[in-house]
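subagent[fold] <- orchestrator: predict structure for attached chain, return tokens only, no commentary.
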Amino acid sequence: MPAIPWEQLEIEEVVPGVRRSVFATEHLTAVYWMMSAGVTLPDHRHEQDQLDLCVRGEVHYRCGDETGVLREGSWLLNPAGVLHGGTFPVDAVLLSIYSPARQDIAQGTDQPARAATYVPTGVADR
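subagent[fold] -> orchestrator:
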């Protein structure tokens, strides 16, 4: 398979303030999240491990009993089955890798991102 630039993937606006590009295979799902300042992603859990890289901005996260700030260049592992969520005080870009694959994201039927709330304060872009 040849290299695919993120810019060539479709951008989906999941809800106002939450946009993403998805790359999925049979075994993993990668999501390039573009989150606007003011977004809150409610606590949720899923059966996949989720590894997040903060590409730009920051997220105030909750993962199990831990809270903290994920900043540009930092990684966070949300283990399978652990309750997690976050808020975005500034525009942010995250790369999330899920294993095994999240078929609900690939099919556009996932619920956590669709339950995000947004109080507009800015716009994230590529």
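orchestrator: received. Logging for downstream: The helical segments are 103-107. The longest helix spans residues 103-107.
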